[in-house]
Specification:
Blueprint: E1 10-12, E2 19-21, H1 31-61, E3 76-85, H2 90-103, E4 108-111, E5 122-126, H3 134-144, E6 150-154, E7 164-165, H4 173-176
Antiparallel strand pairs: 1-2, 3-5, 3-6, 4-5, 6-7
């Protein structure tokens, strides 16, 4: 007598050759259910990718107030309008920056921890622009009418922390010129 070949749900008993049912793990999902599952997985993966990208962008911008440009290139002078301790609440910090921006359009926030020449653990509120030397930056301070601002050399070298040019009592030529300055201007 001829036996029929085993169906996919059955397998042959190797000793007797008789068909026996396979252990079933449940019905296979329908094609429609597999498509829905694929869509759900795609949505979850997409959400994770968007969340990770957003977190990365926010972490890169955390050193800047919203809408402010980066500090500028290394090896230039900037005008520092104020220093805000890093322990300052973010909302309070952003409010202080907004007040400076009303008086000095284009003022922005620099994370001092990204520049070795700036004081650590602070935010530096800076005026717009880069300057050839400390004297040029102090001249900009003069035009602002601010006696509180100072010129700071911007670099990644800790040895440059001493290049802080201040108007009062009188600008120090040693602190107002860096060997890498683009020009050798005279005190103004």
């Amino acid at each position: 007598m001829l036996s029929e070949p085993p169906t996919p749900a059955e397998s042959a008993d190797s000793a007797t050759g008789a068909a026996r049912p396979r252990a079933e793990s449940g019905p296979a999902p329908s094609p429609r259910r597999r498509r829905r599952l694929a869509v759900v997985v795609d949505v979850v993966v997409g959400a994770v990718v968007v969340a990770a990208a957003t977190a990365l962008m926010l972490s890169q911008r955390s050193g800047q107030a919203a809408g402010t440009p980066a500090a500028g290139p290394s090896g230039t002078w900037i005008v520092g309008l104020a220093e805000i301790p890093r322990t300052t609440d973010r909302e309070e910090r952003d409010q202080q920056v907004a007040e400076f921006q009303q008086r000095v359009p284009g003022a922005s926030l620099v994370d001092s921890d990204t520049w070795a020449s700036l004081p650590p653990d602070a935010w530096v509120v800076r005026a717009p622009g880069e300057f050839a030397d400390g004297f040029e930056a102090l001249a900009y301070c003069d035009r602002l009418g601010s006696e509180e601002c100072s010129a700071r050399y911007l670099s990644h070298d800790e040895d440059d922390q001493g290049y802080v040019c201040e108007a009062a009592p009188a600008p120090d030529p040693e602190a107002c010129r860096h060997p890498g300055d683009r020009t050798e201007s005279a005190p103004r």
